[in-house]
Amino acid sequence: MNVVLLPGDGVGPEVMAEARKALDALELGIAWTDVPWGSAWWAEHGTMMPADAIDVLRGHDAILMGAVGDPAVPDDEALWGLILKIRQELDLWVNVRPARLLEGIPGPLAGRAPHDVDMVFVRENSEGEYAGVGGRVHRGFGHDVAIESSVFTRRGCERVIRYAFGMASARKGVLVNATKSNASRFGFPFWDEIVAEVGAEFPGVVVDRMLVDALSARLIRDPGSVDVVVASNLFGDILTDIAAALQGGMGMAASANLSPGGGVPALFEPVHGSAPDIAGRGIANPVGAIWSAALMLEQLGAGEGSRRLMDALETVCRRGPRTRDVGGTATTAEVGDAVVAALAA
Ligand code: GGG
Fold first, then answer.
1. Fewest C-beta in 10 Å: which of 192, 261, 285, 307?
2. Given the CA of residue 8, which atom of ligand 1 is nearest to it?
3. What kind of architecture, by CATH, is found in domain 108-246?
4. Domain named Isopropylmalate dehydrogenase-like: which ranges (predicted)?
């Protein structure tokens, strides 16, 4: 397995060190390629990645990424120069984000059992509201106009919606469609039509169509009533932060950016950002990063390693040590060490 390690910015290198430690402890023979891309690269070169970056990535089996974003770099430049560029250029069109409350982790919903939060979000990852289409005129004249167009293509919608139906079919047979087709004139009515069309291929799956605002409230009020959600790029981005909060916090959430059948490396990253406010203090929660590493092993066909890593991670969450964002006092490295110890036990 040839894996690119892209620690990125802020707490990215800290959590990635723990993910790598855990993967190395599994002794699966992973060959690492470390790349120093991100905001430090930008400070030196004026770009977030070198010109041949996508070719470098293509030569590997997978990418494990930490986080991107730094106060010194305009946010849109940082994201469009790295994570959004990689997703678009490799056409990593589906972002799968499991959201499960692990035993031992305090969730924000007092009295809820862990099984009340066990969802999978299937987020469109290549177009929609993050297509990068638009423009800005009259800048600085006091009557500026900025246009950000959403792009919904039949190909883009069909493939992610079909993927989500497959996921729902393999789980509980219910797919929540996060939409906003009452207020959107074109994009979401089209999205809903495609959900109905693709749904005809999956007669065993019930579609639960929900306006995204109502769904947001439902996730807080009754998360146990939601299993698989399919969402556009922006809605998926927002809903999965709500879901991460239900899991105990941003540090707990993992994700996989995939291009099923695409013959390109998939990218795995914790859902959290670079958290510059706590970077360098050794207190970031590495669980989302290690969970992302387990998702990577599963995709690479190392199912046994993936299961062992998840078991170890769940043992540590249950028994501790835990970082302070989830009620403990441990450092990032202490949690990583405990995962390695649980793997050896
Ligand atoms: N590790 C994920 C990360 O750095 N995320 C930054 C972010 O805001 N990404 C936006 C997105 O996921 O679309």
1. 261
2. 4
3. 3-Layer(aba) Sandwich (3.40)
4. 2-339
Parts of the chain belonging to CATH 3.40.718.10 = 1-97+254-345, 108-246
Contacts of 304 (CB under 8 A, 6+ apart): none
Measured in Å, residue 67 CA sits from the centre of ligand 1 at 7
- At 292-330, the pLDDT tens digits run 999 999 999 999 999 999 999 999 999 999 999 999 999
* Architecture per CATH, 1-97+254-345: 3-Layer(aba) Sandwich (3.40)
Evaluate: CB of 269 within 6 angstroms of ligand 1.
yes
Say what the pTM is.
Answer: 0.96
Span from the CA of 273 to the centroid of ligand 1 (angstroms):
6
Q: Tell me the pLDDT tens digit for each residue of 181-211.
A: 999 999 999 999 999 999 999 999 999 999 9
Distance CA 270, CA 15 (A): 9
CA of 220 relative to ligand 1 center, distance in Å: 22
Q: Which residue has the tokens 């994009």?
A: 187
Q: Is 37 exposed, middle or buried (0-12, 13-18, 19+ CB in 10 A)?
A: buried
Ligand 1 contact, 13 CB (< 6 A): no
Tokens representing residue 205 in the block = 């799956």
Residue 273 in contact with ligand 1 by CB distance below 6 A: yes
Q: Which 3-state string (H, E, C) describes 175-243?
A: EEEEECCCCCCCHHHHHHHHHHHHHCCCCCCEEEEEEHHHHHHHHHHCHHHCCEEEECHHHHHHHHHHH
